[in-house]
User: Fold this.
Amino acid sequence: MDILTARGLVMTYGSTRALDGVDVTVRAGESVAVMGPSGSGKTTLLHVLAGVLRPTSGTVDLAGTDLVALSDAQRTRLRRDDFGFVFQSGQLLAELPADENAALPLLLAGRPRAAATARARELLARLGLAGMERRRPGELSGGQAQRVAIARALVGSPSVVFADEPTGALDQATGREVLDLLTSAARAGGAALVVVTHDPGVARWCDRTLAMRDGRVVGEFRAPAPQHQVPLP
Ligand SMILES: Nc1ncnc2c1ncn2[C@@H]1O[C@H](COP(=O)(O)OP(=O)(O)OP(=O)(O)O)[C@@H](O)[C@H]1O
Ligand SMILES: [Mg+2]
Assistant:
């Protein structure tokens, strides 16, 4: 089943065509890597697919709803309820412990504190952070902090998780570990994943890789069924 279908996406900034006619389909539960040189439009594409940016033209259909036609308030609500986000770094609140950081989307949506943090702690444990739930971001390694960010992205059981270079601030080995956990956790939660990465090894973890250049999708690689899938502990 297709969950997200974008057609004819164009995004212009003055004379720059950040997106120059992009068609993308994301199926429920699949993982899609987006690769390409700096400035090729990867972040812009992610933001348009996620309803953060409204494209100059084109449509983005999420299970029957055109995101482009929604009001800002409607898109904000939809982002909160249907999507999860992981950024490069720095998205955790320094003064909150890991469990409250991970529970934040549920707390903002008005869920009772006890239930929200319990759900967050369950995810943190599955991501290998049992015992670290009360640590603040400053007391975690970069890789551990990104796992908290992954827990936060998944805590609301989103249909799609968007990640923009989620391992960009980590060394390659830690980055791959985090990418591995991100793809496994998204699969386990039934969420589709769209991940921008510079790591060419990523095809190992994703079902498909899209190659971007100059605002266009210029290639698509379908990875063989991943043999390397570490089940969540
Ligand atoms: N808010 C903006 N205003 C003007 N131009 C922009 C804006 N955002 C992006 N651009 C331009 O659009 C193009 C695509 O940018 P984008 O950030 O999507 O690239 P990217 O592939 O994510 O690059 P990187 O790998 O460096 O993150 C670039 O030429 C960029 O300068
Ligand atoms: Mg970018």
